[in-house]
Amino acid sequence: MEIDPFVFRLSIFILSIFVGYYVVWSVTPSLHTPLMSVTNAISSVIIVGAIIAALAGNDNNIFNQSSVFGFLAITLAAVNIFGGFLVTQRMLAMYKKKKK
Amino acid sequence: MISTNLLALFYLISGVLFILALRGLSSPETSRQGNFFGILGMSIAVVVTFLSIGNFSTSFVYVIVFLLIGGSIGAMIAFKIPMTAMPELVAGFHSLVGLAAVFVAISAFLNPEAFNLGNSGNIKLASLIEMSIGAAVGAITFSGSIIAFLKLRGIMSGAPITFPGQHILNLIILISIIGLTYFLCTKQSSNLFWTLILISFLVGVLLIIPIGGADMPVVISMLNSYSGWAAAGIGFTLENTALIITGALVGSSGAILSYIMCKGMNRSFFSVILGGFGGTDQVSKSNNKEQKPVKSGNSDDAAFLMKNASSVIIVPGYGMAVAQAQHALREMVDTLKKNGIKVSYAIHPVAGRMPGHMNVLLAEANVPYDEVFELEEINNDFANCDVAYVIGANDVTNPVAKTDPQSPIYGMPILDVEKAKSVLFVKRSLSPGYAGVDNDLFYRENTLMLFADAKKMTEDIIKSF
């Protein structure tokens, strides 16, 4: 019997939780704020779902009921992606070492 | 058009790049490269999704337009936002992730064919469950983050809002969510789906209103975690590896931060969630209104003490952020260093309104990060330091946390400021901190209170040197 693809996805999920656990513990406490803004930016990869939803409409009916939600989600996720990565970049650029 | 397998491999690459993005944050030197990996991962995910569609119809133009609209709003916010407003910005961003998750779940529910989830009215059971989880958690993240945003921004009072029967109400709602999901799976009715989302919005509000201002670091971390779980739920629905990996990373990251914050306050996660901390009852209990002698001084006294010191430790807190005193503070420290005085900064894990809040503000004011220390690293140095300059911090220095088992903050790890030869305490009044506890440190022999706004006092001290 074949393994259900769900089980594969579940395995990836569980293993990623462990990866996340160890990676995040190694983040230095002084960078916890950038950590939050960057995790926020990467969780906006949800935009891929929004793109699929938005493009599901056809040419005669671009804004049908379900693709409208897709377009809205694209806008929200895009705010987050650009805002999240750029503000992280801005913060990280400020962390400087002592001048010798 | 690229094949499904190739697509999945590219999503895997994105996921790996996101892991590297977080890995980069282990030190400031590698962090910028890490952020670049994150951007690269995101670009790959977006581009391959476009390629997988292949159908470059008119809708595609609209996708780009909406992407650019959102992107420019985001970029504008990112460049304009002052660093002191980071906590509310992060809360606001969480709400957007939550709402985006809800919207994606809704479109998947309305048009399951587009996502290969079956037909409308006959969606695969597993997908329906995953969709409901993603939508519910997303909705909770959205409304919860909005409340957190309003509280942090000061639009809504930071005081906890509690009412009788709150916990029972929450429990009933939680059970009804599970029930609704069950009926949704059997009946596939869209009304049930809408109800589920509406109720989840309500849960988010009810969950955050009882939590007080001082517990905000926990709340933000917790919502960070929720936004991750919502993304993972949607990832399962869409069978998308990049989303599943990211969701798991973000979910565990937020959970760890919540844990660190709770430990920093010596409070259990549940007591924070149940809320009510920092309410008015505690204040009335602890205010015995006995007049204790307090020594207060002016900027000249402070300047004199610091000039004659050989080592000074700065203890910043939320008050520094409110007064925007970080730049003045760094100028003051520059003067001290010119006089050969050793200066370091001590940061309590829960100083400020979000994890790492103080570090960002100090970095903004050009304080080198190797002069800034965490609690464990620096706590033993207070005994050997001449002056501790407490600016905008309060509860995290209160020795009562070590001595009085009755105190609400008993057991909280504190900075041992009282061991310094002299303590300079910048504060506007003797009022208790957010925990509603009087600070014993105010009345110590070696404490000099400097009653003023943090920024103004620091500037006056610079003038007095």
**SS content category of chain B:** alpha/beta
Low-pLDDT stretches of chain B are 278-289
Query: Fraction of residues of chain A in helices?
Result: 55-70%
Distance between the termini of chain B: 70 Å
Q: What is the end-to-end distance of chain A?
A: 65 Å
Structural class of chain A: mainly alpha
Round the mean pLDDT of chain B to the nearest integer and report it: 87
Strand order of the largest sheet of chain B: 5-4-3-6-7-8
Instruction: Identify the overall geometry of chain B.
Output: elongated
Task: Describe it.
The complex is a heterodimer of chains A (100) and B (465). The mean pLDDT of chain A is 88. The longest helix of chain A has 28 residues, at 65-92. Chain A has helices spanning 5-25, 32-43, 47-54, 65-92. Chain A is mainly alpha-helical and 100 residues long. Chain B is of the alpha/beta class and 465 residues long. Chain B is 60% helix and 8% strand. Chain B has a six-stranded parallel β-sheet. In chain B, strands 1-2 form a two-stranded antiparallel ribbon. In chain B, strand 4, helix 15 and strand 5 form a beta-alpha-beta unit. Residues 278-289 of chain B have low confidence and may be disordered. At the A-B interface, helix 1, helix 2, helix 3 and helix 4 of A face helix 1, helix 2, helix 3, helix 4 and helix 8 of B.
